[in-house]
Design a protein that fits this description.
It is a single chain. The chain is α/β, with parallel strands linked by helices. Helices cover about 40% and strands about 10% of the residues. It contains 8 helices and 6 strands; from the N terminus they run H-H-E-E-H-H-E-H-E-H-E-E-H-H. It has a 6-stranded mixed beta sheet with strand order 1-3-2-4-6-5, with helices on both faces. Helix 1 packs antiparallel against helix 5.
Length: about 220
């Protein structure tokens, strides 16, 4: 089996965090009224995208009624609507919407993942839960061998990625911050790029605008060559 596909199968089967297992399954059973006729995914959510990606987009964790419902990262909620429109405008996606894991959407040159694979209560995984999930994140990034740019959406994604890539000390998180990633001598340069998260808290208030997000993706495209 392809190593990335094998990793995805392992992720989907994981039951390592009792609190997260209980929460994701409770949400999948009780559902939200608007989705009462749908079958929720209710399992850990694997990464999604092009195995040959030069850009990897890193969030935090699946949303309870978004990716925990659809089974695809950033799919089924307002955050995902913003992200996939931006990916489409930047030429990474073949359409501006992502509605389900089997809708035929294709990403080219980009891959989407997160350091935590289960929807956490109040969208706040504990440090212990993040630590249990870290091996999946580490193995996934290692298998994405052509990545030149890591785009972290939000401070937690930034911290998790910087720790994994051995960036220390690291600059304070801010929108548009760029951090060189340590690489062996002679290897292609790699960059950790920051953006405010596409959460409604940021997009509804205007803290993150579509032109701001487009500029980040344009910069990612330039850095990846």
């Amino acid at each position: 089996m392809d190593p990335l596909a094998e990793l995805r199968d392992e992720i989907v089967r994981c039951r390592a965090c009792p609190r997260l297992v209980a929460w994701r399954e409770e949400v999948a059973t009780t559902k939200r009224a608007a989705f009462r006729d749908e079958t929720y995914w209710g399992r850990p959510v694997p990464g999604f995208g092009d195995p040959a990606a030069e850009l990897v987009v890193i969030g935090l964790a699946p949303a309870a009624h978004g990716a925990n419902r659809t089974g695809r990262m950033f799919t089924g909620d307002r955050s995902g609507e913003w992200l996939y429109r931006a990916l489409w405008r930047a030429g990474y996606a073949d359409r501006p919407t992502s509605v389900s894991r089997d809708d035929g959407l294709t990403l080219t040159g980009a891959y989407i993942t997160a350091p935590v694979r289960c929807a956490p209560p109040a969208n706040k995984p504990t440090p212990e839960e993040r630590a249990r999930c870290r091996p999946f994140f580490e193995r996934e990034l290692a298998l994405l061998t052509r990545v030149r740019v890591f785009l972290a959406l939000g401070q937690i994604g930034y911290q998790a990625t910087a720790d994994l890539l051995g960036i220390s000390p690291r600059p304070r998180f801010a929108h548009g911050v760029e951090v060189p990633v340590p690489v062996p001598e002679g290897a292609p340069t790699r960059t950790l790029l920051c953006s405010y998260h596409v959460s409604q808290q940021n997009t509804f208030t205007g803290r993150l605008t579509e032109p701001m997000l487009d500029a980040v993706f344009a910069r990612a495209r330039a850095l990846s060559g």
